[in-house]
């Protein structure tokens, strides 16, 4: 018998109540939101429950919503997979834009280490409890986080690029 989205939702609501909400089926991915302070408990439950068995953390990424209210300006998105039933889920936790922090999952999934470092590097989201939260792809000297919406798209002082080749002006060549 396959694992149904309604089973996942019912178990989550029964265990976490109003801390889990916004359940939605998007094609073959079941998604929901979780209160940020409950993320480790929810992920641990999804992993350890004998029916749910979401043993694989596929991805962690950040999203910046600068136009949202300050308490929902960033989201951390987690993708998990149950290989037994080939069921995928997406979990979204919104966090405060002034102090973007959420608990690290490295004690539950050691593979979260580099995913959290990448999210920190590009969005500036702090994963509390992370064993070595530092930049992973950008230079250590960099003071900004390039995936935030306020980060400039390109260096305005560059003279080595011809805007015509980037669709910015009409090309009559």
Automatic annotation (TrEMBL):
Class of the enzyme per the UniProt entry, highest EC level: translocase
Gene3D superfamilies for this protein: NADH:ubiquinone oxidoreductase, 30kDa subunit
GO cellular component terms, semicolon-separated: plasma membrane
UniProtKB keywords: Cell membrane, Membrane, NAD, Quinone, Translocase, Transport
Chain ranges of the NADH:ubiquinone oxidoreductase 30kDa subunit domain: 33-154
Chief place of localization: membrane
Catalytic activity field: a quinone + NADH + 5 H(+)(in) = a quinol + NAD(+) + 4 H(+)(out)
Enzyme Commission numbers on file: 7.1.1.-
Domain of life: Bacteria
InterPro entries per the UniProt record, alphabetical: NADH_DH_suC, NADH_quin_OxRdtase_su_C/D-like, NADH_UbQ_OxRdtase_30kDa_su, NADH_UbQ_OxRdtase_CS
Presence of the UniProt keyword NAD in the record: yes
Subcellular location: Cell membrane
One MF annotation (Gene Ontology) recorded for this entry: NADH dehydrogenase (ubiquinone) activity
UniProt keyword annotation of NAD present: yes
Membrane-related topology note: Peripheral membrane protein
HAMAP family the record matches: NDH1_NuoC
Subunit structure, as described in the record: NDH-1 is composed of 14 different subunits. Subunits NuoB, C, D, E, F, and G constitute the peripheral sector of the complex.
Primary role: NDH-1 shuttles electrons from NADH, via FMN and iron-sulfur (Fe-S) centers, to quinones in the respiratory chain. The immediate electron acceptor for the enzyme in this species is believed to be a menaquinone. Couples the redox reaction to proton translocation (for every two electrons transferred, four hydrogen ions are translocated across the cytoplasmic membrane), and thus conserves the redox energy in a proton gradient.
Family under the similarity heading: Belongs to the complex I 30 kDa subunit family.
Protein name: NADH-quinone oxidoreductase subunit C
Taxonomic source organism: Flavobacterium alvei
